[in-house]
Amino acid sequence: MRNSLIVLALLCSSCASTGPERTSSHASIGQEGTSIQTAVPIKATNSAEGVAAEYAWIARKHPGFKREKQSLLLEGNKAYDLIEITTADGKRMAYYFDVTSFFGKW
């Protein structure tokens, strides 16, 4: 399990985005994602697809954003990513994603 977390962290850290990405994953742009209670659900079959969907969701809301930090949070039987960004106009934002569907799947 620890090795999976390390690999996931490395994978996530290499996924910086400067614009929209195309993905077939389902990410609901209608969810706020500003708290763990309103986390954006990401449905994906593996971590690469899921992480790409997270960044595509952010890019649709904030074109030209810069990723600042990404954290994995485990709460109960759920896994969440917390992604902190700076928008193109310099505003700091943070979004929560429910990554339970693909967490630990390679």
Labels describing this entry:
alpha+beta, five-stranded mixed beta sheet, 2 helices, globular
Task: Please give a quick description of this structure.
This protein is α+β, with helices and mostly antiparallel strands and 106 residues long. Helix content is 25%, strand content 30%. A 5-stranded mixed beta sheet has the order 1-2-5-4-3, covered by helices on one side.
Can you tell me about this structure?
It is a single chain. This protein has 106 residues and is an alpha+beta fold. 25% of the residues lie in helices and 30% in strands. The chain has helices spanning 2-13, 47-61, and strands spanning 26-27, 40-43, 66-75, 78-86, 92-98. A five-stranded mixed sheet has the order 1-2-5-4-3, covered by helices on one side. The longest helix has 15 residues, at 47-61. The radius of gyration is 13 Å and the shape is globular. The model is unreliable at 1-27 (pLDDT under 50).
How many helices in DSSP terms? 2
Strand content: 25-35%
List unreliable stretches of 5+ residues: 1-27
Major sheet:
5 strands, mixed
Strand order of the largest sheet: 1-2-5-4-3
- Radius of gyration from the CA trace? 13 Å
Mean pLDDT: 80
Please give the share of residues in helix: 25-40%
Number of strands: 5
**Structural class designation:** alpha+beta
SSE sequence, one letter per element = HEEHEEE
Query: In whole angstroms, how far apart are the ends?
Result: 13 Å
**Overall outline:** globular
